[in-house]
Amino acid sequence: xxxxxRARIKSNLPLNRNHRLLSLVNMERxxxxxxxxxxMLEVSKGNDPxxxxxxxxxxxxxxxxxxxxxxQGKGTAxxxxxKEKTELDVLGPLGSSYPAPVAGETPVIVAGGIGIASVYSxxxxxxxxxxxxxxxxxxxxxxxxDELKAMAREFFISTDDGSHSVRGSVIDMLKGFxxxxxxxxQNIVIYACGPRPVLKEVASMxxxxxxxxxVSLEEHMACGIxxxxxxxxxxxxxxxxxxxxxxYKRVCKEGPVFDAGEIEW
Amino acid sequence: xxxxVKIGKLILKxxxxxxxxxxxxxxxxxxxxxxxxxGAVVVKGLSLLPKVGNPPPRIxxxxxxxxxxxxxxxxxxxxxxxxxxxxxxxFDTSVIVNFFGDSVEEYVKAAGRLSxxxxxxxxxxxxxxxxxxxxxxxxxxxxxVTSQVVGAVRRETDLPLIVKLSPNVTDISLMARVAEExxxxxxxxxxxxxxxxxxIKKRRPVLGNLTxxxxxxxxxxxxxxxxxxxxxxxxxxxxxxxGIMSAGDALEFMIAGATAVAVGTANFIKPSSTVxxxxxxxxxxxxxxxxxxxxxxxxxxAG
Lengths: 265, 303
Ligand SMILES: Cc1cc2nc3c(=O)[nH]c(=O)nc-3n(C[C@H](O)[C@H](O)[C@H](O)COP(=O)(O)OP(=O)(O)OC[C@H]3O[C@@H](n4cnc5c(N)ncnc54)[C@H](O)[C@@H]3O)c2cc1C
Ligand SMILES: Cc1cc2nc3c(=O)[nH]c(=O)nc-3n(C[C@H](O)[C@H](O)[C@H](O)COP(=O)(O)O)c2cc1C
Ligand code: FES
Known about the structure:
The complex is a heterodimer. Chain A is built from five helices and 16 strands. Chain A is globular, with a radius of gyration of 18 Å. By secondary structure, chain A is of the alpha/beta class. By secondary structure, chain B is α/β, with parallel strands linked by helices. Chain B has one domain (5-55, 71-195, 215-298): Aldolase class I (TIM Barrel, Alpha-Beta Barrel). In chain B, 32% of the residues lie in helices and 22% in strands. In chain B, the strands form five sheets. In chain B, strands 3-18-17-12-11-8-7-4 form an eight-stranded parallel β-sheet, covered by helices on one side. In chain B, strands 5-6-16-13 form a four-stranded antiparallel β-sheet, with no helix packed on it. In chain B, helix 3 (104-115) links the parallel strand 7 (94-99) and strand 8 (122-126). Chain B is globular and about 55 Å long. The model of chain B has no long low-confidence stretch (mean pLDDT 96). Chains A and B meet through strand 14 of A and strand 5, strand 6 and helix 8 of B. FE2/S2 (inorganic) cluster binds next to loops of chain A.
């Protein structure tokens, strides 16, 4: 069972103008992924683009796993053109995962935009018990609403332009949610994935209310396995160098899921 | 068929090594390949004291390559000795420790400390780093400073000493000769080429450190040319590197003059690159009815 294997594309479905749902079938035995972990996928056979691209586990399937992705630049554009039966090299599952809520904790899951890809399998895991706050730019950028609704304890949606549900950001929703519910819900634990400014806001709100928050970060990556030290984020602490416990932590190894209080935003 | 090559007094079982900084301390790759198959493991550059490295972003992809500005982050020599050497001792491969300093004194101390440890088979000195005592000029771009620092380290260690040259110089042959005269047993080339990428929306360089080192297939022709030139200039063995992705690329370096090769950025794309390159070299030798891999070194210069 290796974390380096080949997978075959089962389908690569357009969801809207720039988002796709990629279904992969592993051709060798693979390790079971945990919610929040990610894969590095080969996006070209040539030298340009050169590096693999990082994508969260969207969900485990009976034959392999799915990736939900946004076409961002060259690599993801090439990926979006890949046809069924194409084979690609995969590294993973990689990195840390969302720690499962412990008994008595109420999970509040916050997803901004494509961040839904990272938390989806967590929502599956805690089915029925999590409050879900999902924000996107517009109606067209909201995905899997029926599935999510069926799994969430309560589901809140916002769009920046008001084209679906409430107009506003996911942060506005979280603010509202926390001010209403912190008294009734005792042990809230937040899980969040989205653009960095959103995560920063989540971290400061959580900190102000003394709530634990787990956030999933992104950084440019080369190796994905902790070897190149290219993907680091700054963490709180003294200038104490090294691997593991240092001023910088690797998003691919110690992360991508971090305790929000640990990050130097 | 004989795959052995000689780097000074160090005999490698085959010419395929890892390039410093692309293979961690070996552990990260043990899950993907059999480290016993490698000619040598060259570990991430170490300094006497741990180093925190540069602020992010540290890497950005470029056409057929990447820029990195890791800033030589490392756990420091002591932690390497206590935590990583025991792991590496478990493998039947040569361990080469890449190291650097910000002063001649630090280089010497680092070399001395590393030479006292069992399980380290060779030292690779990275001279592409800034010199505190000379306005943070790069050691390896000034022949006088290069001579001084290599000479000082040479006097401190009996281990095979490999000097890793900076390609960011006008005359690489000159730097190679200087390192040879100062006592190097072998030369590694090339290190990364300094480059920059600018974000046109922010109108600022992308990397936290502004500049970074270019690696990957984009630099290969430059690296092959430098190996070819240096081969003519010195007698000591050369370890060739720069954009090696396949066995064919590795053979190019050997034919240009390299005794061994190091695989860097390719490890990121395919963690099994090193062993696949080794297999490819063996296939080439079979197809070409080559008995000794070492007979290929410098073949481009013959007749
Ligand atoms: C842990 C992790 C999980 C991710 N999960 C998902 C996901 O589930 N769905 C999804 O759509 N995207 C995800 N991303 C972002 C995705 O990796 C980038 O959108 C993708 O690498 C862009 O490549 P490109 O060639 O299309 O874009 P370009 O902008 O052309 O890429 C240029 C370079 O920058 C890197 N890069 C650009 N944007 C990012 C970014 N946001 N994060 C990391 N590297 C970047 C690329 O890998 C490439 O090396 C994730 C990133 C990380 C680090
Ligand atoms: C992420 C990264 C980190 C590196 N770190 C070091 C280092 O610590 N010391 C060193 O001498 N060279 C370092 N190098 C340079 C490589 O060892 C090698 O010389 C260079 O990348 C060219 O080979 P390549 O194109 O095969 O990667 C580093 C390269 C990369 C890409
Ligand atoms: S991507 Fe190489 S250490 Fe994280």
